[in-house]
Structure formats: C-alpha cells, structure tokens
Design brief:
The complex is a heterodimer of chains A (487) and B (93).
Chain A lengths: L7 H9 L5 H19 L2 E4 L1 H16 L11 E5 L26 H8 L3 E6 L33 H8 L5 E6 L5 H7 L2 E4 L19 E6 L2 H11 L29 E5 L9 H16 L3 E5 L7 H16 L18 H12 L2 H14 L4 H25 L2 E5 L15 H6 L5 H6 L3 E9 L2 E9 L4 H14 L12
Parallel strand pairs in A: 2-3, 2-4, 7-8, 7-9
Antiparallel strand pairs in A: 1-3, 4-6, 5-6, 5-10, 9-11, 10-11
Chain B lengths: L3 H10 L6 H18 L34 H5 L5 E2 L2 E2 L6
Antiparallel strand pairs in B: 1-2
Helix pairs in contact in B: 1-2
The chains are: A alpha/beta (487), B mainly alpha (93).
Chain lengths: 487, 93
C-alpha cells in the first residue's frame, strides 16, 4: 500500500521506528494531491509550505529522541468552516472569500499542539448547508469512487480527501448528517460526537444547538485517536460539556459479547434503497456473530424529524448569518448609497441560493404570527424525538441503521428540488436533534458504491460506539478497499 | 401558499434583495417545504415542553477579571474599509 493510503496509527509506528520521516509522509500526500486533485477537487486552499515546515520540525524532535504524540507528523485536512490563524477560511462562500482568521479554532489549536501537519482547507456546501458539496460557491467536489457522483455533504471535501489519499485524516462538522453522510458515500469512517463533547470555538456557526465537529478517517482506531485529541472541555465555548474524558482507544478491544443493539424499524422501511437495506441486514448478522444481541425496535416520531429539523436549523441559521453585513470582514458591495442598501446588496451578492433559501425559511419561521406554529412547535417535537431515544437507550446500548437512504447520487440530480435533497438526511438528522453521538462505518457496496452503517449511542457513549465499530471492522475488509480514482 | 408579498416581507427582514425570478422560485419552494412541515400539526404537543438545547447546562459565569484582548490591527485586518481605528461604512442617515 502507498504511504498516502496508510492510517495514522500505521504511520505513527513507522515514524517511531524511524522507518520513514514525517517529511516523506507529507511529500507522499502532496504528491498524491498533485496527481489526483484536478479530478477530485477536495481542497479550497492547500498549505504545502506550512505542512513541510511542520513535518520537518517533527522529524527534528524524533531525531533528538523526543517522545511524539500519536498524531504528530500526521497530515490532516480541515473543513473550511474551522478558523485557521493566517490561513483563509471561506466556508465555501463568496461572502467570506477573503477572510483570514486572526485565531485558531480550538480543534485546530489542539491538533497543532499535537503537532499534526495541516495539508489545507477542504471544500464544503456553503456554510455547511447541503448534502452534496454542490452548494460550494467555488466548485463541486467529485466522489473518488465515481467522479460523476457527489461525495456527499456538507463535509464532502474532507471525506473525498481521506478516501482519495489526499490526506491521512480530516475534520468535518455535522449539523444534520454532514460528517456521516459523506463518510458513507466515500467509504470512510465519520464520527458525529455528542453535542458539547468537542469545542465549537472557532467553528463558523450554522445551527448552534446542532453543530458538532468530528473526525473523518480510514479506520476506527484513527477515529479514536483524533477524537481523543479534539474532545474535552473548553472554557471558550459555553456549551462545551465538563466531563471526564476517557482514553477512547481503551475501548478498542474487539469484544462486544452481550452488547444490546436495537434496529429502529422506521430507518429500514419505505424510502430506503433495497440494496442499502440488504447491506445493513447482512451486517446485522455480523454483529450477532460477534455475540451482540440485536433486535428490532421503534423510534415512533422519526417521520417528524425532517420538518422539525429544517425549521429549527434554518431559524438558528437566519440568526447566526445576520453577522455577515459587509462591515467588519468578508465581501462588501462597494456601490451602495447608504448602509441599509450596503447590507442588502452585500448579502444578496455574497450568499448563494441555498443559503438565501434557508435564511428566508428561518426568518419566516421566527417572524411574528408564525413563531408558535412553526418554531415553537418544532422545539416541542424535538422533545418528543429526544424522548424516543431516551426510551430506546433504557433498553439498548446502541442503535443500528443505514446512514443514508441510498449510495452517492449523480451531480445535478437533486439540485432543482430542495425537499428531495433534504430527504437524503432522513437517517441522520434525528441524531443531531437528540444531541447523541453516531458513527458511519464502511459496511459494503450497492451498485459498486460504498454504503455506510450507522451506530448511535447514548450521550457521551462514544466509547461503546467505537468498541462496536472496531469489533465490526476486525471482521470485514471494507475499510481496506480504496477507490479506483486514476493515479 | 407563501405569497410574493410575504416573500418580499421576509426578504426585507433577512436583509436580502431578491430578483423577481428569485421571489417566484422561493414562493414556490418555501410553500412546498412548509406544506411538508404541516405534518407537525398532527402531533398533540399541548403538554410537551420545548427543547432549545440538549445539555442540562446552566449559565456559565466566570470571574470579571481583565485579560489580554486582541490587538486592534488584528481586529481591523479583515475590514473592507477603515479610517484610523474604526470600521468605515457608507452614510447611515
């Protein structure tokens, strides 16, 4: 296997045995980027010089006999909605096309202190609003398994970069499925952590009560290593949860005997591609074979999650995006006569179609006369959805489902019908409403395209999720397969 | 159905200037989405409290101690227009 297709833990072992240098790893990854990036288009910004400098510094530490952290010298890509000091952070939007943050997001800071090597900033749906990366204001990223298809979204650039060997690990953000769905479409591992377990400081806000940052990696061990590094309390985020953070690699034992897993029937019914359903069914047997007890269960309010989500997420977005007014940073219309005209023209020219649609929907849901019927109603339904999960987790350790109703779709296929595009997230967005953690792991193929399996856990139950995902991974080869993107 | 007039009102609240084409498109698309959302009215939620946030977090207070603040030049570095240490904008009145 080429260096750029190894995992972080494999590369770490080779680094400490001095079989390779961090600089060689970085060179291999940038060589791969040079070879395939014009076909994949995963990156908005590449930071080659920074990466080489960071890698050389790690090599120096190794040469001096210093002990290095598990992610030291490991190339990492950040979704372009995480602030990187001195490196352009655009959210794939015209309105932030020139924004250079004066500080690092906490996750970026922690990974920098762990001495990871930043390869660049990845493409995404504008402001993380979308499920295909087609809403990027700059260009669309292609799925490495079939370049006519989307990589999923909104963290499509991060998932495609990991899948294509254009980085070793990456971070994404997930508001309604934006880590898990692209991970599923690209055949990689993606974890959406418990709300509050990873700091949102420096993450450009979309829907603040739903957004979480998480790892996108090639295997479960790398997922645990990245999650170890980025999770934990941060005084700079008032919604960051104070909790005792375990070493998540301690859960990677391979033993899941007696683990109780529920399969919610609402996630396996109408609307799910039969080929996807078949992959998930086959894998239920894998978990049973490992000694888990699997049975069908129900989350009765599942069908209400989509409308509740779109009212709440857009309401929060309409408020969060009020800050883009052309005054302090980003794009400004220069022709405006007065300040209100400047706000209107700046925002109308700076935001893309989907962002405007969501600002409109959210503003409507919050406006006088509609607040109770839409926003408040959706918040109450959120309580019912969360209660469904509380009931299920009184009986089960984990829940299991597909990540997305189908495999990656063709570019342009769903762009004219927003509601059809929103349906792609029906298996993932309840998880954000409930605030619980969930992972997408490679589980097989439908029509030669990767299919992800979702495991959901109790709040702060990432350990159980990683334990089960790791045990599953030991029995399958899916995570060793790489796409046929020409090199 | 969301009328064109409602679309215009909401666009103004959101400080967006829409073309005639966009107004027509959003009128239809928002109507479709809200029609889908009407499903929520089937549920009796009279005795259900709203959830705005999933964590049982209270207000987070810290001691009121002066600390380092970001240098003015850094704050202004991204400004589309500035004069001295101020953000400059078109006329307000």
């Amino acid at each position: 296997m080429e260096l750029y297709y190894l995992t972080a833990h494999q590369l770490h072992d080779m680094l400490i045995k001095k079989e390779i240098s961090a600089e060689e790893i970085t060179r291999a990854v940038f060589g791969r980027i040079d070879a395939v990036e014009d076909k994949i288009r995963a990156y908005v910004t590449l930071t080659r010089e920074t990466a080489e400098r960071q890698a050389r510094a790690v090599d120096k530490s190794i040469a001096m006999g210093e002990k290095i952290a598990p992610l030291a010298g490991i190339p990492i890509a950040f979704k372009d909605n995480m602030c990187t000091a001195g490196v352009r952070t655009t959210c794939a939007s015209k309105i932030l096309y020139n924004f250079v943050p004066p500080y690092n997001a906490t996750v970026v800071q922690r990974l920098t202190e762990a001495r990871s090597v930043m390869t660049g900033k990845t493409n995404m749906d504008e402001f993380a609003m979308g499920s295909s990366t087609e809403n990027s204001a700059f260009f669309t990223t292609c799925n490495p398994w079939d370049t006519d298809r989307v990589p999923g979204g909104s963290s499509g650039g991060s998932a495609a970069a990991v899948a294509a060997g254009e980085t070793i690990v990456a971070l994404g953000s997930d508001t309604g499925g934006s880590i898990r769905q692209p991970a599923s479409y690209c055949g990689v591992v993606g974890l959406k952590p418990t709300y509050g377990s990873v700091s949102r400081f420096g993450l450009v806000a979309y829907a603040s009560s739903l957004d979480q940052i998480g790892p996108i990696t090639r295997d479960v061990t790398d997922c645990a290593l990245v999650f170890n590094t980025i999770s934990g309390h941060d005084p700079q985020d008032s919604t960051s949860a104070p909790y005792n953070q375990p070493d998540y690699t301690s859960y990677l034992t391979g033993d899941i005997k007696g683990l109780k897993i529920g399969v919610p029937k609402e996630y396996m019914g109408e609307g799910i591609d039969p080929a996807v359903r078949e992959v998930i069914r086959e894998n239920v047997n894998v978990f049973t074979g490992l000694g888990a007890e699997v049975e069908e269960t129900s989350l009765p309010h599942s069908e209400y999650a989509l409308p509740a989500y779109y009212l709440l997420a857009t309401a929060e977005a309409s408020s969060n995006l009020a800050r883009y007014d052309g005054v302090r940073y980003g794009y400004r219309n220069e022709e405006a006569e007065d300040i209100v005209d400047m706000f209107m023209k700046t925002r109308s020219e700076g935001f893309g179609a989907e962002v405007k649609r969501r600002i409109m929907l959210g503003t409507y849901a919050l406006s006088a006369g509609y607040y109770d019927a839409y926003y408040n109603k959706a918040q109450k339904v959120r309580t019912l959805i969360k209660a469904d999960f509380d009931r299920a987790f009184a009986k089960y350790d984990l829940l299991l489902s597909p990540v997305a109703p189908g495999p990656a779709f063709k570019r342009g296929e769903k762009m004219d019908d927003p509601l059809q595009m929103y349906m792609v997230d029906i298996c993932t967005l309840s998880i954000n409403l409930a605030g619980i953690p969930a992972i997408s792991i490679p589980a097989g193929f439908a029509n030669k395209l990767p299919v992800g399996l979702q495991l959901m856990g109790k709040p702060f139950g990432e350990g159980d999720i990683l334990r089960a995902a790791y045990a599953f991974e030991q029995t399958t080869d899916h995570h060793h397969l790489v796409p046929g993107v020409a090199s | 159905m969301i009328s064109l007039k409602e679309v215009e009102h909401v666009a103004l609240l959101g400080r967006l200037e829409l073309t005639e084409e966009e107004k027509k498109l959003y009128s239809k698309q928002l109507s479709d989405i809200l029609e889908h959302a009407r499903k929520l009215q089937d549920l009796d939620t009279a005795n259900v409290p709203p959830t705005s946030h999933v964590l049982p977090l209270q207000n987070v207070f810290r001691e009121d101690r002066p600390g380092e603040h970001m240098a003015t030049e850094k704050v202004l570095a991204n400004a589309p227009d500035r004069q001295d240490d101020y953000f400059k904008v078109p006329r307000i009145l």
